Amino acid sequence: MRHLLDIMDFSVVELQELIDCAMDIIAQPKKYAETCHGKKLATLFFEPSTRTRLSFEAAMYELGGNVLGFSDGSNSSAAKGESVSDTIEVVSCYADIIAMRHPKEGAPLVATRRTGVPIINAGDGGHCHPTQTLADLLTIHRELGRLDHLTIGLCGDLKFGRTVHSLIAAMSRYEGVRFVLISPEELRVPGYVINEIMEPAGVPYVEVRSLEEAMPELDVLYMTRIQRERFTNQEEYMRLKDSYVLTPEKMKTAKQEMRVLHPLPRVNEISVAVDDDPRAAYFRQALNGKYMRMALILKLLEVTV
Length: 305
Ligand code: NCD
Known about the structure:
By secondary structure, the chain is α/β, with parallel strands linked by helices. Helix content is 38%, strand content 14%.
């Protein structure tokens, strides 16, 4: 039985298979409409979510399956003090596959020890978020036609932003990829991402402070929200929250084929005036997340179409 805890659980070949499957779902949705008939997905969200939970649920419905779960840990027995392991052991009696989001790093790994069904990490604390990366990969593939030979700028909260950590891990395996890490000093990418992911892969990167200076060389600009809920010091959050704001003015120096991605939700880091720019791909990215989650559910449930 396979789980998805970390994007590195899948090889580059498997990621391409998921992309190919998602592209086929987009082309022929009817073919997939009953592929998960009689199957149940549990969505266990101990932390807030809009896109991830709803796109998982929409994905399962579009495959003909059903969904159960909770969107707030305080409505579940976690509020009575139940452990993650016990909750998972029970839910795996009711569902065929589980997508879970938890504020504690490593909670989905703990879940795999007591489950009889595949576990999907839908975000664990400030650690990683592999299914967002699936959405990101399909978006880059559809928008730019390739996943290699790209200069990718990641901007904002590179410390607590779990989507950033998973995207760096995934993209470090493609040839000719280079990262421009744009953040305030306090929100630099964690040491383990540099030492255990980028350095061993030999992927070139620079750490800079200025978005404006980086802009002209980027093929992808991945904007992120400053992760307020992960700060222990709210004054520091207030000081850093508007470190970067993407505006139409700043977009003027970007390449014509550059694409702006953002996992969403956006707070203030992209002006709404950028939304009309054809290079703004973040809402298309949210739609792509549903297709990749459909492909993922099929893979983990070993459904052949
Ligand atoms: C992200 C997350 O939860 O990490 N949201 C999402 O799943 N699309 C990004 C964020 O919350 O900033």
